[in-house]
Design brief:
Elements: H1 3-8, H2 13-26, E1 31-35, H3 43-51, H4 59-64, H5 71-74, E2 80-87, H6 97-105, E3 112-113, H7 122-141, E4 146-149, H8 157-163, E5 168-169, E6 175-176, E7 184-191, H9 210-214, E8 220-222, E9 225-226, H10 232-238, H11 245-251, E10 254-256, H12 260-263, H13 283-286, H14 290-294, H15 298-304, H16 314-333, H17 336-345, H18 351-361
Parallel strand pairs: 3-10
Antiparallel strand pairs: 1-2, 2-7, 4-7, 5-6, 8-9
């Protein structure tokens, strides 16, 4: 549908957009915008990133190729993309939440889980609320072709977010907003209605390189360029094989994801607490120590991660990650209980886990003299 056709149908698109913003706020979204579907200028960068192999084992990215930059090919008839941003910092987060996170990283026996995974699975939260927003739109203007996405299809989310004013692409490649930093999820509604476009956001990283300097594995190989093969978030979540030995020590006690580039970002002093209880932390994973998590069998893992994004990596990757973290803790602390727990798990371990347990047990011999 063209803008002229919308007007002929009696649709007041600017007024509709104002109403959409109000509905989005009521649903817990921090901000919404509207992007065009012409992303051809983003295609060379995407092609170069794929050509460099920076997507690692995420073969689906290469399989979709440039389709990610062509929304109208993903959903024919699409003329606009409604973009949405939802803050996820838990309501209970203290003022010095970054310092608390760094303190936990400095405690080898404690488990560190990325903040976004402390509560309910964001895929479910955003998808349901985006669908409710789309339903409200349909009720107002009648049936329209649309589809909602939340990290679930070949969509250039950060590109669309920046073009529609939700933020700019930070040097760590995440979307950054002046009023909320980067602690937010993104989602989209592809729609065949020519809503008025919202202006893009300007970049405000300046000369800052805090995120590049802080990355434990130097995965941010240049400003705005991430090599997923080195990224702890990729290695601990997406990667299903052995963790490359050269990155295991750098993982520390990070067992699911990594927040370091966000923890040091100056703009995250403006990160806003989520109004939704969905993102409140679950103590079983947000405040656990490594040995208690290592004691879980598969039934316990499934129970404690029900409704969580963590569940999707499965017990195999979960224990692989824990074995690496326990090896690092064994090296740092010399706690005999860690070695005993690792040894006890060896007889039942499959090949992948056994290799990581073997590496973990060998770490004490690598400890600095006097440790």
């Amino acid at each position: 549908m063209t803008a002229e056709a919308a007007a002929a149908d009696g649709l007041d698109l600017p007024a509709l957009w104002t109403q959409l913003q109000a509905w989005a706020t009521a649903l817990g979204f921090s901000q919404i915008g509207v992007a065009d579907v012409d992303l051809h200028s983003a295609e060379p960068g995407l092609a170069a990133w794929l050509q460099a192999g920076f997507h690692g084992g995420m073969g689906y990215m290469a399989a979709h190729g440039l389709k990610r930059a062509r929304p109208a090919e993903l959903l024919p008839g699409t003329v606009r993309v409604i973009t949405a941003r939802m803050d996820y910092l838990p309501q209970t987060s203290p003022e010095a939440w970054q310092a608390v996170a760094f303190e936990r990283l400095a405690q080898p026996r404690q488990a560190s889980v990325s903040l976004y995974a402390h509560g309910r699975d964001y895929h479910k939260v955003l998808r349901q609320r985006l669908q409710r927003l789309a339903d409200r739109l349909q009720q107002a203007v009648g049936p329209r072709g649309h589809r909602v996405f939340t990290d679930s299809a070949p969509v250039l989310e950060v590109e669309l977010a920046s073009r529609s004013g939700l933020g700019w692409r930070g040097k760590h490649t995440l979307a950054l907003a002046r009023e909320g930093g980067s602690m937010a999820f993104l989602g989209e509604i592809f729609i065949d209605l020519p809503l008025p476009l919202t202006p893009p956001a300007s970049a405000h990283c300046g000369q800052c390189t805090a995120c590049l300097d802080a990355c434990p594995t130097q995965a941010i190989v240049a400003p705005y360029r991430l090599d997923a093969r080195r990224c702890i978030s990729y290695l601990s979540i997406e990667h299903d094989g052995p963790i490359p030995p050269e990155f295991r020590t750098a993982m520390g006690n990070r067992i699911y994801g990594c927040d370091d580039c966000q923890l040091v970002c100056p703009w995250n002093k403006y990160a806003r607490r989520s109004p939704l209880a969905d993102f409140d932390p679950r103590p079983a994973v947000a405040a656990a120590d490594l040995l208690s998590l290592w004691a879980w069998d598969e039934a316990a893992f499934l129970h404690h991660t029900e409704g969580s994004a963590i569940r999707r990596i499965g017990i195999g990757r979960w224990r692989r990650n824990l074995a690496v973290a326990l090896g690092n803790a064994w090296r740092e602390t010399g706690d005999a209980a860690i070695a005993q727990a690792l040894q006890a798990a060896l007889p039942a371990a499959d090949g992948l886990l056994a290799e990581h347990i073997g590496w973990a047990l060998a770490q004490r011999s690598a400890a600095p003299d006097g440790a």
